[in-house]
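Feature request, filed as a ticket because there's no other form

It would be nice if the structure record came with a short human-readable summary line next to the tokens. Right now we just get the raw output. Example of a typical job, pasted below so the devs can see what we mean:
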Amino acid sequence: MGKYKGIVFDLDGTLVNSEVDFMKMKRNMIAVIEEHGAPKSVLTPQMTTVVILEHAKKYWEEQKKAESEKKWLDDEMTRLMDQGELEAVETLTAIKGANEAVHKLKKMGYRLAILTRSHHEYAVKALEKTNMIGDFETILGRGETPQPKPYAEAMIHAAKLMKLRLGEVFLVGDHHIDATCALNAKCHFIGVATGSRPERAWEINKPEIILPSVADLPAYLEKTAK
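Raw output as currently delivered:
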């Protein structure tokens, strides 16, 4: 692992425990999408927000909606996601040992970044609340990369802003969306078993390395660097 200079972290389930009601958020999004012409019962809360939005944009294009209406709908989707996330900040907590691990990784010389599909303000507030904000030089939230995770462009953009090559960074996350992003970008990935739904975390693209927690990452890197 000695060739790596930077680490890109997912946020929810990787560094923080968050009680964002994603099912409620997605139900609210789907209700608005269906009210504006999408077929009923095709979109489900079990889909990721990325998939829901991709379907929505396809419906709006097929229906030849005016640009002004498409912008309003895009803004409404963003508002609903932002609202759900920011409501959860009050009860958010750090994954046990994450704070200490992040501080140690910074002292070890790694450049650290956040890559999340959540709102930027939510990410900043989460890191402030858990006293990790000072360790991250780059924070990328929803809409701040050319494409979101799991697309390769998300990781490529993060590495570019860190002024590092893809071969010099790796991604840490708790979900197959993170693993797929790393796979698509052809960069290294380390999984952690602290997500809210560990039984479904690795339905696809199960990583070779899964640590119990981010708390175990510094020791793992020290061991593998020898």
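Something like this underneath would help us a lot:
The first helix runs from residue 22 to 35.
The mean pLDDT is 92.
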